[in-house]
Amino acid sequence: MAQAAVEHHGGGSEHETTTGLPNTKLAMWLFLASDCLFFGALISTYVLYRGRGIEGPFPHDVFDIPYTSVSSFVLLGSSLTMVLALAAAQKRDFGRMRIWLLATALLGMTFVGGQVYEFTAFHREGLSLDGNLFGSTFFLLTGFHGAHVVIGILMLLSLVSFSYADKLPEDASFPVEMVGLYWHFVDIVWIVIFTVVYLIPTKPPALPGG
Amino acid sequence: MRKRVLWVLGLAALALALAACAPNASQDTLNPQGPYARELKNLFVPVFWVAVGVFVVVEGGILLIALKYRHRKGQDRMPAQTHGNTRLEVGWTILPAVVLAVVAVPTVATIWDLASKPPANAINVTVTGRQWWWKYEYTDPEMKTAAGGQIISANQLVIPTGRTIYLTVTADAGAGSRSDAGVPGFAVIHSYWVPEICDGKQDAVPGHENHIKCQADHPGTYTGNCAEFCGLNHGIMKLEVTALSPHDFEAWVANEKLDAATPEPGSLAATGLDTFMSVGCIACHAVRGVEGAEADAAPNLTHFASRDCMVGCLLDNQNPDDIARWLHDPAAVKEGVKMPNYHLSDDQIKALVAYLMSLK
Amino acid sequence: MASVSVPSERARGVLRRPTAVTGFWSWFTTIDHKKIGILYGATALMFFLIGGVEALLIRVQLFQPDGKLLTASQYSEVFTMHAITMIFLVVMPLSAAFFNYLMPLMIGARDVAFPRLNAFSYWLFLSGGLFLYSSWFLGGAPNGGWFGYAPNSTTDPTPGMTFYAIGLLLTGIASTAGAVNLAVTVLNMRAPGMSLFRMPAFVWMGLVVQLRLAFSLPIITVALAEMLFDRRFGTHFFDPAAGGDPILWQHLFWLFGHPEVYILILPAFGIISEILPVFSRKPLFGYQFVVFSGIAIGFIGFGVWAHHMFAVGLGPVANTAFGITTAIIAVPTGVKIFNWMATMYKGDLRFTTAMLFAIGTVMNFVVGGLSGVTHAVVPSDYQQTDTYYIVAHFHYVLFGGAILGLFGGLYYWWPKIFGRLLNERAGKINFWLMVIGLNLTFGPMHILGLQGMIRRTFTYPESLGLTFWNEVATVGAFMIAFGVLVFVVNAVASFRHAKDAGADPWDGRTIEWSIPSPPPIYNFEEIPTVHALDDFWHRKYAEDKSGRLVPVQAGGSADAGEHHVDGHGIHLPGPSYFPLIAAAGFPLIGYGIMYHWWMAFVGAVVVLVGIFGWALEPSAE
Questions:
Q1: Taking each helix axis from N to C terminus, what angle separates C160-188 and C92-107, rounded to the nearest 10 degrees?
Q2: What confidence tens digit (pLDDT) does each residue in B148-170 have?
């Protein structure tokens, strides 16, 4: 689905659709709604298993909230640059559009880099995918989110290179808008994950059988 | 063609009639042998007849319509183009809702009745599902053995008639979820079911405890099976419940409380005990009163010979040939079984059988 | 959107875009929704034969007590693959075949919203199916049931359930893409005048199904990912020893699994809602009620999942709640049955094979519906769950309902799709073999279940007294098999006739019958303007002064195919290699996860090549 945004450049702007929305935009909204349930199920798993792990390390052993807060703000900031990129595209200022798209991708990469660093730091403290229940739920949830960010970065970089190669459609703001929808969605999901995983304190670990 | 429709229906009716007098099915939900199973049947049967009523009306209606309004040759009729009738449609929305609401009343009442606490004189037994057999532990204080532990048995549950048995159904939490780790996990979900005397089935879920109430009116043997798919031998993870008169049950309990019988020195059974201790059996099996035989991974054999069935009630405990066949090569009897083949000699097997048969 | 005008210029690309729209190779590059529909249908029918053979193996094994045809482990593989095949590789793609082929025709569109994504969905579905079946040659097929309950599924030492997890992830991605595509098509590409409440009931059911897919598949995707990680990477999601809970799998699975049941049955409901009016020569009685009850089933269907778990120990509160929601969902289902009866009432009923299948669907589904109500009676379900009573119930729903309905659709639309009628005489033999066979097979299973025969058992002892009905069931299964054989012969034989079905052999009501059979590649020479529900019917018949229907005199009847145009001036998107390439990379990633990482890497590269080639593909001129 993600590629549909890039693929169907030109969107529905060229002819009428029944709802008036371009097909690609409708599809993107549907896909994002579907993706909501994907993250919903992942976050549910995390919440249901919160505090049920038997062995450590536990969240409070490894989390560095200030560090993750900073990288969260970086990701949030990328939503702003994404908005600026779309505004530039709508004004047909493609030079500026490319700059803002690159900035967005760069901020995304910073976030992913931060996540990679965080994962290695956690790993050094003994938290691993197969080590305990918290590790399993944490890495799967944040890992899948990270994968979404990576796909977003790939789409942003593709937009930039397509723009340089003059392969964007007449109405270049449309694919930018579509990638932007996806990007904002991924940001919003992170706000939820950050709140649920990092900010809400975990109950002390339950005793086995308790 | 219409005749064929009737023929099919007639066949279905015949099937139902035959079902009513089914030939001696021995774990029949419609043949309850105790109050709890009867409560379920008494709920099912009226609902069944309601369903039959709806079935007759709907299917009969369709057939009548199909017969009456079939296209006849030479007749070119354009039917009236009715698009709907709101009043009618609201009516047949409400009608099933009312029928279902009526059915829901006894349903909900029975759910809560079954979930109520057991009577005070109930016997408490914990059932643990394992791949692929059942472990029973009688947890009441009066079920303490001479040695101090509780009465533990396998596969065959022994109960008195006329008393509620309150089963706590569970499964081991097991070790590790890795499939590549080599040791196959045995912590899977099972479901305990004895159709004729219990209030249905409950799943034995690792880390969870569920409850079933059972009671038998008359002495006898009631069979059941694991009902939740639990790996390849799910189909033969059988079980038996033997209901004894209260008097016989007391005698059974008294015997179960004793430690295992010690074989006479020099007898074949004594050789069997030596074999039992040396070839590897005690890695998994326990025999109360025998030092070193305390493992819990496999059925407790203390009163092995007092039971009727083994290996998930696949084999007959009272049949030396069955036991020998099992000891000779467990996997040949039951594919994928956890008990290893110790490649015992015929003499070793003979001695082991003698010992096991002595464990009354 | 690309169907009407293709963005021109930019005709530069790495590969030349394929152009052939006929011939053998065109099937690999086609993005025509009709060809893709045929591909879906043909593939589904192939898998239907395979799944049927698996069913026969099961029935032969259980024909007598202590059956020796299959070992316990082989039986686990066969019954698991039978279910996975029939659900994911037969009923879902066969429904997808009808939706793909017909929905654009029924709403007056030239193609789906995203033709290449449509091709991608098909190829990915096929990859997933082949991936699943490759397990037979690579260490063992899935053996933990289609429900894959953890921890049995996560700890089993054979690779089968890893194939299950990855295979279903692949078909799940395919279905999600397909669902979004078709939902957008229905919402956005309707012909002028085709308002939502002028859409055929089939299209409505299609829309509900696509939305349910879009919102239930992500949940199973997460569950399968967790299972895969447990199996391959040692995570602890369903590991009780580490604090994980096997019940979580069940919740996630049935949150998908129950909506899935309606995903399987609603297409058949839609099909018979088309067939019954045509062969009764009356409009669908209470069209809006049928549509709204479909939507209601769509919503309530998300709130009943735990009725699969009454014996799990959720407690009396949950059991009461889910018992009641389960009873409630019977109401909209009942409404449909009554509406179908009222549609036939006072009609002029013509018992074509399609009509027989439609009536058969209703009558057999009623049995499954009624036994379903007995499951909502929770305490009675404590006895019935996990027995053959359940097997009987859902086969009446899925065979008696879904498969009969889909076969009705095959007989009904075959002339539209291939321009040739299926033989009616053979069709009727096919119908009666199937209907009698299914009642002989699944009817006795009610009795077997009540008599204590558990599900998923590879054997039963003679002492249980279950032999007779098991024998009957096996005989019935072979009758079904003969019925299917008759269909296969009928289908093959139909291609020996000339294409003489004509545009409108059944005196149809919906606009797909207004165009030639088979439809031209551009579907509609001119996009129709729709004025009413059953628009084509109203073009053919009008009411005279006394309110009686009379044929419209000039130009109204089914002559649309008479004057041929070559479709000049209609721009259609060209065929493409890239959907196939992108889809082909996914199973490589799957094998990579199981065997060597370099395979996953190669797979990912192939996918990326496919997607970028796709994005940059020049439009054909």
A1: 10
A2: 899 999 999 999 999 999 999 99
What sign does the CA torsion over B209, B210, B215, B220 have? negative
> What pLDDT digit, counting tens, does each position of C428-486 carry?
999 999 999 999 999 999 999 999 999 999 999 999 999 999 999 999 999 999 999 99
Asked if B104 and C157 come within 8 Å (Cβ–Cβ), the reply is no
Nearest to C217 by CA among C264, C257, C183: C257
Question: Alpha-carbon distance C8 to C5, whole Å?
Answer: 8
User: Could you please report the per-residue DSSP string of C481-515?
Assistant: HHHHHHHHHHHHHHTTS-S---S-TT---SGGGGS
Question: Would you call C222 and A15 a contact, using CB atoms and an 8 Å cutoff?
Answer: no
C169 at interface of A, judged by CB pairs closer than 8 A: no
Q: Who contacts C405 (Cβ-Cβ below 8 Å, separation ≥6)?
A: C265, C267, C268, C269, C271, C272, C357, C358, C361
Give CA–CA dist C455/C448, Å, rounded.
10
**C152 CB within 8 Å of a chain B CB:** yes
Separation between Cα atoms, residue C581 and residue C120, nearest integer Å: 9
Chain C, residues 282-301, CB within 8 A of chain B, namely 282-283, 285-289
Residue A23 touches chain C, beta carbons under 8 Å: yes
* Residues of C in Cβ contact (< 8 Å) with A204: none
Residue pair A78/A183 in contact by the 8 Å Cβ criterion: yes
Helices (H) and strands (E) in chain B, counts: 8, 12
B241, containing H or E segment:
strand B238-244
Chain C environment of B185 (Cβ under 8 Å): 151, 155
The per-residue DSSP string of C258-299 comes to HHHHHHHHHHHHHHHHHHHHHHHTSPPTTHHHHHHHHHHHHH
A208 contacts in chain C (CB < 8 Å) = 243
d(CA B155, CA B312): 6
- Is the ipTM reported for this complex over the cut 0.90? yes
Mapped onto helix, strand or coil, the DSSP state of residue C251 is helix
